[in-house]
Design brief:
By secondary structure, this protein is α+β, with helices and mostly antiparallel strands. It has a single domain, classed as tt1808, chain A. Helix content is 23%, strand content 35%. The strands form 4 sheets. Strands 3-6-7-8-9-10 form a 6-stranded mixed sheet, with helices on both faces. The chain has a two-stranded antiparallel ribbon with strand order 1-2. It has a two-stranded antiparallel sheet with strand order 4-5. Strand 1 and strand 2 form a beta hairpin. The relative contact order is 0.13.
Length: 189
């Protein structure tokens, strides 16, 4: 009978693995290495368009740092790679650009892919809340929806949502108007 190991990898051990192999993304989840495929076009389009919109707003108002797809240590046994993350200016200055993110982002954004719905809506939802991430956005390119959650008393509460071509205002940027129609791929004829 084979013997199964129950030893968990730590975040420190995981980060020593180096860069991901081509075509996959590695994350550490409860001490185990999770492998996911590279994103597809709808996901990539939302990522780039949202980066343009939110990034321009952050830069114009000198608010902080917008980044994404960087190893982010959430606990001793959890390292995730949010599609986008934001740090307020006062906190961004303390990040080490030569290392993984070891501070809790002020906002994490996940763009749902066909294979990631449960992970983004359940696993990451709980992990980001447990790590104390104050704001979490979930975007579904297939359903053309966005949901913004705010951490209150240790759990996320829905703060705002939008669909299709709505223009939304989401925390932590209440003055930023995000035209959702700009995030989606054009409809096919």
């Amino acid at each position: 009978m084979p013997v199964l190991s129950t030893i968990k990898m730590t975040a420190r051990q995981f980060l020593r693995l180096g860069e991901d192999p081509p075509g996959v993304r590695l994350e550490l989840v409860d001490g185990g290495v999770a492998v996911s495929p590279s994103p597809r076009l709808p996901h990539s389009n939302v990522d780039k368009q949202l980066t343009i919109i939110v990034g321009a707003y952050i830069k114009m108002h000198d608010l902080g740092l917008l980044g994404g797809d960087v190893d982010t240590v959430l606990s001793e046994v959890d390292v995730r790679r949010p599609d986008l993350f934001y740090f307020e200016k006062s906190r961004a200055q303390h990040l080490d650009p030569s290392d993984a993110i070891r501070e809790t982002p002020d906002l994490c954004v996940e763009i749902i892919s066909p294979s990631s719905g449960v992970i983004d809506r359940e696993d990451k939802f709980e992990q980001y809340a447990s790590a104390g991430v104050p704001h979490y956005w979930l975007i579904d390119p297939e359903e053309k929806t966005i949901e913004a959650f705010v951490l209150r008393d240790g759990s996320y509460q829905l703060a705002a949502e939008g669909h299709d071509k709505d223009v939304v205002h989401l925390p932590p940027f209440p003055d930023l108007a995000i035209p959702l129609g700009d995030l989606w791929l054009p409809s096919r004829p």
